[in-house]
Design a protein that fits this description.
The chain has two helices and no strands. The longest helix is centred in the middle third of the chain and has 20 residues. It has one domain. The radius of gyration is 13 Å and the shape is elongated. Helix 1 runs antiparallel to helix 2. It is an all-alpha fold. The two termini are 16 Å apart.
Length: 66
């Protein structure tokens, strides 16, 4: 698994995941919306920590500096 995510990409994903958490814990989102956004937030966090986005791979996209 070759890393394909740059620092800016990782920071944006972590920020979005934190935003979803804040929206959930302040009861702005709930129900099915909270579940879907929560799963997306977990995926964003996981991909940020491993620096690999599976959706980038088939399209040969890389935001990482060479």
């Amino acid at each position: 698994m070759k890393k394909n995510m740059g620092n800016k990409d990782k920071v944006i994903r972590v920020f979005l995941a934190l935003a979803v958490a804040v929206l959930y814990f302040t009861n702005i989102i709930n129900g099915i919306t909270a579940i879907i956004l929560g799963v997306l937030a977990l995926i964003f966090l996981a991909t940020s920590f491993i620096s690999f986005c599976p959706l980038y791979y088939p399209f040969k996209i890389s935001t990482r500096k060479k």
